[in-house]
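Field reference: "sequence" (input) and "structure" (output). Example, Lipoprotein signal peptidase:
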Amino acid sequence: MRATLAVAATWYIIDQASKWWILNHLMNPPATISLTPFFNIVLGWNTGVSFGLFGGLGVPAWIFVAFAIAMSAALLVWLGRANVPFVRVAIGLIVGGALGNATDRLRRGAVPDFLDFHLGNWHWPAFNMADVGVVCGTSLLMLHFVTQPGSANTASTQEER
């Protein structure tokens, strides 16, 4: 469990440090910085959930914070039963990312997004390092469950061994 909490804490620090640097140094004043033909650094504020869903609907930030904390708590309970290192890393990434975005919602009322990938004029919604942790962690979990059929419960008891 300690290793997973270390993953979560490390990802949280990466997320918060990257947002601090973007807000206080790179995007002061805000600009669009083109790094490659398909990637920019921009500054956007997400008041919704992933990819801006439910943004602008007037949903209070504390609802999203409460949801992130509840999901993190549920994942940590699951972590107590998980015996697959792959799953533990995935849970750490998700928890670190969820708590990173929850911190921003509490501090700023919105989440700063700055990674902008695009193809011509089509832009994927901007995101941040917390989002990367949540997406990568979720992808790792999905990969685990697809490659390990019947492992919905990653815990095993002494009788099963």
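Confidence is low (pLDDT under 50) at residues 154-161.
Helices lie at 2-26, 61-79, 85-108, 129-147.
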